[in-house]
Design goal:
The chain contains 14 helices and two strands; from the N terminus they run H-H-H-H-H-H-H-H-E-E-H-H-H-H-H-H. By secondary structure, it is mainly α. The longest helix is centred in the N-terminal third of the chain and has 22 residues.
């Protein structure tokens, strides 16, 4: 587990802003249930925003400073990003904007200040990327290889990857699970983004994998994490990413392969089998159907490629 990182310090903001930042991070972790990587990125975005504001105003940033920021100030911050980072992608710009919007939404809601100017910034257009799923055979190879370690971590990793592909849950959702959450082995109850609850049925292979994992660790408390690291604490997403990187290299799979790829593969393979978009939306926990519709583009690409290669007339 990584040591706690400190992103914001008093060299560019006062103690009241530091306190607000600390409360915001707790909110992101406990209420929004964002993954470590997400609130990590949000914290870094806020750091550079506060540094810009300090230089912009030529003084340490206070809550009063933040309350008095105009729409023009926020636009200046966005422009400075483009000037300093010529290669910054629209997606990174949009994430930085989302980070600061989240911070100001928290400040407004909790009466630290009253300033809604950032919400009037024009939206940044992002070209939606088409998810990159694995073929079914590659998914099985990845899962099987993850279980070939000579110690208990092999069973843990195989169960984790089996669960993600069997249910389509996010890696952060899988790692939040406790043993008590899988007592009913036929379904799994997930608390997703925004505390949205969904129940997902478990296929037989996932049921068997979870049962074996539970049986081999019967001495653990029922409220302990389902997936634990070597030191007995909750498994960290970075360790899962390292495992996937090792598997990717051994199987010579694309660099695009991440734990999230198994979620993409789950969605794409169900769509290919005729599952409708509304059902898929519920299984994936998407708040918007438009997000789920991104998988139809994958399906269309597969159809076009198959048609082109199979049609008798070239």
């Amino acid at each position: 587990m990584n040591k706690k990182k400190i992103y914001i310090d008093n060299s560019y903001c006062d103690k009241n802003v530091l306190n607000a930042y600390s409360m915001w991070v707790k909110y992101l972790k406990k209420e929004r249930l964002l993954s470590y990587n997400t609130y990590d990125a949000y914290s870094i975005d806020l750091k550079y925003f506060l540094i810009f504001i300090k230089n912009h105003l030529n003084e340490k940033v206070s809550i009063k400073n933040l309350e008095n920021l105009s729409l023009r100030d926020f636009r200046s911050w966005l422009s400075s990003q483009k000037i300093k980072n010529n290669s910054i992608s629209p997606k990174s710009q949009a994430r930085a904007k989302a980070s600061i919007k989240s911070f100001f939404k928290f400040l407004n809601k909790n009466n630290y200040l009253k300033n809604t100017n950032i919400f009037n910034l024009q939206s940044i257009r992002i070209k939606r990327q088409i998810p990159r799923p694995l073929a079914f055979e590659d998914v099985i190879n990845v899962i099987n290889l993850s279980g070939e370690k000579n110690d208990w971590t092999g069973q843990r990793d195989k169960t984790l990857l089996t669960l993600i592909y069997a249910t389509g849950i996010r890696i952060s959702e899988a790692l939040q699970l406790n043993r008590i959450d899988v007592e009913n082995i036929e379904t799994i109850r997930i608390i997703g983004k925004g505390k949205k609850i969904r129940e997902i049925p478990l296929i037989e292979s996932a049921q068997m994998a979870i049962k074996q994992l539970l049986d081999n660790n019967k001495n653990l408390d029922i409220n302990s994490p389902l997936f634990i690291g070597i030191k007995g604490k909750r498994l960290h997403s970075r360790q899962v990413q390292k495992t996937i990187e090792e598997i990717r290299n051994k199987l010579s799979l694309p660099k695009s392969l991440t734990p999230h790829t198994l979620r993409h593969s789950f969605a794409t393979h169900l769509l290919e089998k005729g599952v409708d978009l509304r059902t898929l939306q519920e299984l994936l926990g998407h708040s918007s159907l438009s997000t789920t519709q991104g998988y139809t583009a994958v399906n269309s690409n597969i159809i076009h490629k198959t048609h082109k290669s199979a049609h008798p007339r070239k």
